């Protein structure tokens, strides 16, 4: 399984040879450095730890942890599984090729406290026939029995800022010289969001 960390740059569109417009997301991917190989005997589980980016002001514990890797990464992520193929020192975006189907995970845009209409797509109340000040209210949140609101009731609250994965994205192009890749469609998050990219 190919795996790399990247940063969302933004969306654009490209034109295929047959004239079809393809919406794509540009991702600045890699390179990532292997900082630690975890084994079931020592750590209790098998995993490969990767580092991405460069920390501006690394503290001493972080510097000591990544001393053997020869880098001070800004972000650390783990890929579980005792995979001997991951024992290389560094991975670049060139491990992907056009046509690969990938799954991309990241945090969605955080939109703060939102009402039920925006957060859950409620239609709201009628805007006439005596209604006033309630057009975007939730409405009934329960019944006479059991006399309390049931867990999971869709109401207003904090929207976004959660981890989300998008599957089935096709890699359109890979530029190893500039460490960028383009995938068809949209990926979670805003510009600059940290993304985990892996083949399915």
From TrEMBL:
Domain of life: Bacteria
Keywords: Ribonucleoprotein, Ribosomal protein, RNA-binding, rRNA-binding
Keyword check for Chloroplast: no
Pfam families in the cross-refs: Ribosomal_L3
GO cellular component: cytosolic large ribosomal subunit
SUPFAM superfamilies in UniProt: Translation proteins (SSF50447)
GO molecular function, one term: rRNA binding
GO BP term, example: translation
PANTHER family cross-referenced by the UniProt entry: 50S RIBOSOMAL PROTEIN L3 (PTHR11229), LARGE RIBOSOMAL SUBUNIT PROTEIN UL3C (PTHR11229:SF16)
Family: Belongs to the universal ribosomal protein uL3 family.
NCBIfam families: L3_bact (TIGR03625)
Name of the molecule in the record: 50S ribosomal protein L3
Organism: Candidatus Yanofskybacteria bacterium RIFCSPLOWO2_01_FULL_49_25
